[in-house]
Amino acid sequence: MLNKFLISSFLILFVAACKSPPIDTGTTTGSGTTTETTDTTTTTDTDDTTTTTEESTDTEGETTEGESSIVPGSPDDFIINVGDRVFFAYESYDLDADAQELLHLQAAWLKQNKEVSVTIEGHCDERGTREFNLALGEKRAQAVKNYLTALGVDVSRVSTISYGKEMPALVGSNDAAWDQNRRSVTVIN
């Protein structure tokens, strides 16, 4: 009886200790701009009042009251102030004008932060075979790498990997999901 109680207590404590990480509520647009809103609600038992504060950050370089600043040279700095995603047309690895503009910003940031290395992830939408999408994802990652190195980023600081259709940004079988999944992501190592 005591053993059952101890085992049950241990299992309850073990499950309670397995807390999930907080969910990031920020959204990134194609230009690399992120807007994040955090609501905090506090309830006081003594007078039954509820106080709600809202902190908002428009992350094109300005922070509002109560928000800590982004550390220059950090992955957050790169994602928020530069942008980490390049999007592609269907079955293409060509870099359009928007992609080239973003890659110029990425190259400038990488040249300013010479200690940072990156991995370019190539992704595809769900259409096509696994093998086709892995090859297309690799071509997308290589196109981004080649463009960055042509802009002066040291080739030894840039690696590539293809995930094909295995890691969708948005799950779905529609144009909106497919548009978000045809991408490359520059990840700070």
Write up what this structure looks like.
The structure is a single chain. By secondary structure, the protein is of the alpha+beta class. It has a domain at 83-170 and 179-189: 60s Ribosomal Protein L30, Chain: A (2-Layer Sandwich), CATH 3.30.1330. It contains five helices and seven strands. It has helices spanning 2-17, 75-81, 97-112, 130-150, 175-181, and strands spanning 27-28, 34-44, 49-58, 85-87, 118-123, 158-164, 183-188. The strands form two sheets. Strands 4-7-5-6 form a four-stranded mixed β-sheet. A three-stranded antiparallel β-sheet has the order 1-2-3, covered by helices on one side. The protein is globular and about 45 Å long. The chain starts with a helix and ends with a strand. Residues 55-65 have a biased composition (Acidic residues). It holds the Pfam family OmpA.
Give the terminus-to-terminus CA distance.
52 Å
Radius of gyration: 22 Å
What is the beta-strand fraction? 15-25%
CATH superfamily of the domain at 83-170 and 179-189: OmpA-like domain
What does this entry show, briefly?
This protein is an alpha+beta fold and 189 residues long.
